[in-house]
């Protein structure tokens, strides 16, 4: 509540006595509704992960119900990254054509529809198709979150990034914790346990419909992003693919996404294979994701105060290595400790989002960098969950998969130092 009050203080309008009665600027229009925009961003953020985290606690039941092999199940856990890479890159183009509020609304509708259809699927192909629809909606909204933050709250990037990172973690944790209880309450129906999360996406749609109507007139037709205006049109042209900073950030983003989706997709199964009940495994995943709620709000603000974010990312990566070592040595005996360590490692995600906002000087630059880093990063992360499932099926255990993810975490730490340098993509592009 105090944070929203702080955001509301940014409300600035022309004095009534001003002799110039010009049309209000997009930024001023945005600031007249800080509560609407902030709440819209938070509700959207809440819906960016339940489609993924609700699946892993009941993956065994879904596999039995649809007859999935281990390799196909690994493909299911890789689908989020593939969709985020394939569809995320379209977000800037869609935003220019229809406006970001309309795109966010469409994304939420796709999430809701996909989750409903997935819960009704009777075969693996339809299950994957419905999941793809939901994940496509998540993908475009993923990319637009840093863009909207930079545009509507340019002097509160750390605070707003922290807020929506917290809501992403909250949505992830709530879905992970409640899917199994909902499934059991519905007569052990995993379909109800997965489909119920469509409600959360549907609730957020009306808010963005209002926002889209309110800000449609303020969108610059040249960019589709409210408030871009002439400044954006005259921004220096450059290719983000020529920037080492952009590639370092994309690589780091991809490896932290690999770790996150391996955690969401396979760590509950690791716990279950160690003899931990399914409900407890779901709670352990919920703990992993819940840790990101408070730290997701704090770490972006800490990162903003650091000249280089590399040391912070190294500490978080080391926590991940320690968590993997614990899963290797005593997965059941120290399960709660390993969950805490993996939860700390997963908070690299809000820092990565903060870096996207820091590594470009303009909103247009953030849009380019966000689309490139997230799409490329998620493409990099596609093989990880699939390889984990394949290695598990080939070896009959989790040691080989853990060696793989530990090696990737070590590379992630190195790339974190490169992405954390105090440089912008415009500097060398």
Written description of the protein model:
The chain is mainly α. The protein has one domain (30-221, 238-428): MFS general substrate transporter like domains (Growth Hormone, Chain: A, Up-down Bundle), CATH 1.20.1250. 77% of the residues lie in helices and 0% in strands. It is built from 23 helices and no strands. Helix 10 packs antiparallel against helix 15. The longest helix is centred in the middle third of the chain and has 30 residues, at 244-273. 58% of the residues are buried. Residues 1-27 and 217-235 have low confidence and may be disordered.
Short description, anyone?
The chain is built from 23 helices and no strands. The protein has helices at 2-8, 26-31, 34-46, 50-53, 59-66, 70-88, 91-98, 100-120, 124-152, 157-185, 190-195, 198-215, 229-233, 244-273, 278-290, 292-304, 310-329, 335-346, 348-358, 363-381, 383-395, 399-419, 425-428. Helix 6 runs antiparallel to helix 20 (363-381) and helix 21 packs antiparallel against helix 22 (399-419).
How many distinct folded domains?
1
CATH topology: Growth Hormone, Chain: A
Biggest beta sheet summary: none
Q: Would you list the SSEs in sequence order as H and E?
A: HHHHHHHHHHHHHHHHHHHHHHH
Mean pLDDT over the full residue set? 81
Quaternary state, please? single chain
Beta strand count: 0
Please state the overall shape, judged from the principal axes of the Cα atoms: globular
Provide the CATH architecture. Up-down Bundle
The end-to-end span amounts to 41 Å
Helix content: over 70%
Rg estimate, integer Å: 21 Å
What's the CATH C level?
Mainly Alpha
Strand content: under 5%
**Treating each run of at least 4 consecutive H or I residues as one helix, how many helices?**
23
Derived from helix and strand composition plus strand pairing, the structural class reads: mainly alpha
């Amino acid at each position: 509540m105090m944070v929203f009050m702080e955001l509301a203080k940014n409300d600035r309008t022309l004095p009534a006595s001003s002799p110039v009665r010009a049309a209000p600027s997009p930024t001023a229009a945005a600031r007249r509704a800080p509560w609407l925009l902030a709440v819209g961003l938070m509700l959207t953020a809440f819906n960016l992960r339940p489609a993924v985290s609700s699946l892993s606690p009941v993956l065994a039941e879904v596999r039995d119900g649809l007859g999935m092999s281990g390799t196909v199940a690994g493909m299911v856990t890789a689908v989020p990254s593939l969709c985020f890479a394939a569809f995320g890159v379209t977000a800037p183009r869609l935003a220019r054509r229809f406006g970001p509020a309309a795109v966010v609304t469409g994304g939420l509708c796709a999430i809701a529809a996909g989750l409903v259809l997935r819960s009704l699927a009777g075969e693996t192909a339809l299950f994957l198709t419905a999941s793809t629809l939901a994940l496509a909606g998540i993908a475009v909204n993923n990319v637009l979150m840093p863009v909207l933050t930079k545009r509507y709250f340019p002097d509160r990037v750390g605070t707003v990034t922290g807020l929506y990172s917290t809501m992403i973690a909250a949505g992830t944790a709530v879905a992970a914790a409640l899917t199994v209880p909902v499934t059991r309450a519905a007569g052990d129906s995993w379909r109800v346990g997965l489909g119920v999360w469509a409600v959360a996406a549907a609730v957020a749609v009306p808010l963005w419909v209002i926002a889209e109507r309110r800000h449609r007139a303020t969108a610059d037709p040249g960019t589709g992003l409210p408030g871009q205006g002439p400044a954006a049109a005259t921004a220096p042209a450059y290719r983000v693919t020529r920037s080492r900073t952009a590639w370092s950030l994309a690589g780091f983003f991809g490896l932290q996404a690999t770790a996150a989706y391996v955690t969401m997709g396979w760590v509950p199964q690791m716990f279950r294979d160690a003899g931990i009940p399914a409900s407890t495994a779901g709670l352990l995943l919920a703990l992993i994701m819940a840790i990101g709620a408070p730290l997701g709000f704090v770490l972006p603000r800490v990162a903003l105060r650091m000249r280089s974010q590399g040391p912070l990312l190294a500490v978080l990566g080391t926590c991940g290595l320690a968590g993997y070592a614990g899963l290797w040595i005593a997965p059941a005996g120290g399960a709660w400790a390993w969950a805490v360590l993996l939860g700390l490692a997963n908070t690299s995600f809000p820092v990565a989002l903060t870096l996207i906002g820091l590594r470009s000087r303009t909103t247009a630059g953030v849009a380019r960098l966000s689309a490139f880093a997230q799409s490329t990063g998620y493409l990099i992360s596609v093989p990880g969950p699939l390889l984990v499932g394949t290695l598990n099926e080939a070896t009959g255990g989790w040691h080989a998969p853990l060696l793989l993810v530990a090696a990737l975490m070590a590379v992630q730490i190195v790339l974190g130092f490169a992405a954390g340098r105090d440089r912008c993509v415009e500097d060398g592009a």
